[in-house]
Specification:
5-stranded mixed β-sheet, 6 helices, 9 strands, 41% helix
Length: 215
């Protein structure tokens, strides 16, 4: 009986160790979720829900997937000093840009396009903005080096340069500063426009130096 009890304990210990290594300590997971809950209550007045808590095996830490009452998905995690931080602000900016750019592209080309927005900014904006995140146009100069807009669409076979120019000009006017990539669906090329060059492009033919062949 004693041997069976000892064996059972050993099995439990081994199982717990394996789970802790591969998916993180269950006890630490519960504590992290509790810390995230406290952080969100203190930081935001909006409604929110923790969708899941995932374990980042490579960096040995937990990450909470949260969704706001308005449908914005964002992440909460601990920094190097074990202080909570989130990317709610950059998630709001990604949503703002994707919606606006997709609508503009459809207006210009007449069809839907694949639009991918990247605003790589995981920080403490929550401490500055809380629920009142400003439009991306208000902060774009600060974030433009980390931001990109990718558009893959059905551009006109004969007027695609003009259509791209129109979209580019609109992005500049809206102050949506970011590097810009156009990829026509029916061509084996793409156009990559660095942020600092956007205002230099005035005519359709000005886009040609930014043309690259797809591998």
């Amino acid at each position: 009986m004693v041997k069976k009890t000892v064996l059972f304990v050993i099995i439990i210990v081994i199982a717990y160790t394996v789970v802790s290594i591969t998916t993180g300590s269950p006890i630490k997971r519960v504590q992290f979720r509790s810390n995230v809950t406290d952080y969100l209550h203190k930081t935001y007045t909006m409604n929110w829900k923790i969708e899941s808590v995932d374990y980042d095996f490579k960096n040995d830490k937990f990450i909470a997937n949260v969704i706001s009452g308005s449908g914005i998905s964002f992440l909460v995690e601990e920094d190097y000093y074990r202080k909570m931080m989130d990317n709610y602000a950059s998630s709001v900016w990604r949503d703002e840009l994707k919606t606006a750019v997709a609508q503009k592209v459809k207006q210009v080309t007449g069809s839907d396009a694949e639009v991918i927005i990247n605003v790589s900014h995981m920080g403490r904006d929550a401490l500055t903005y809380h629920d009142e995140v400003p439009s991306y146009s208000k902060v774009s100069q600060k974030l433009s080096s980390e931001a990109s807009i990718y558009i893959k669409g059905n551009f006109s076979a004969t007027r695609y340069l003009q259509e791209m120019l129109e979209i580019k000009q609109w992005i500049v006017e809206k102050k949506y500063d970011a590097s810009l990539t156009f990829e026509p669906k029916d061509k084996d090329v793409y156009f990559y426009l660095p942020t600092e060059d956007l205002k230099k492009i005035k005519k359709p033919e000005d886009l040609n130096p930014y043309r690259f062949q797809n591998n």
